[in-house]
Amino acid sequence: MENKKIKDLYDYDMVSDADENNIANEWFNVLMEKYVCELSIGDICRMLRQKIFSVVAIDKAIEILNTEPFVGDLYEGQLMVNLCNAKEKYLSKRYEDMKPLLETSVRLAISHEWKDEEEKREYLECAVGLQKKIKEQAGVLNES
Fold it and tell me: How far apart are CA 114 and CA 22, in angstroms?
């Protein structure tokens, strides 16, 4: 998947030239031409927030958070916060991969020297809430 462009993985059309002055449309068209390995933290955060290309965004977020749990584009911990708001149906499918990541992230966040206490609080709320949410969702999927 790393060596494929987003447009090769998803069946979306590029945004037409008529909408050229819209910054979101410009970003979308640039994103469609990127290889998965070229995605920036900002791209992944935005994909998660907008709930587009979720499988790729969640995969990349997990990969990055395993080595950099507090990474963000605009603020510390942003990637985790955006991951918490991703589509639940895709998150729950990654429960086994995310469980150790979330446990480690919570443990590290408690002792991490945060620049802002509000960012720490939001990060911990998201990580703990995500643990609970995906565990419950994974249990529902396993029962069906």
Answer: 35
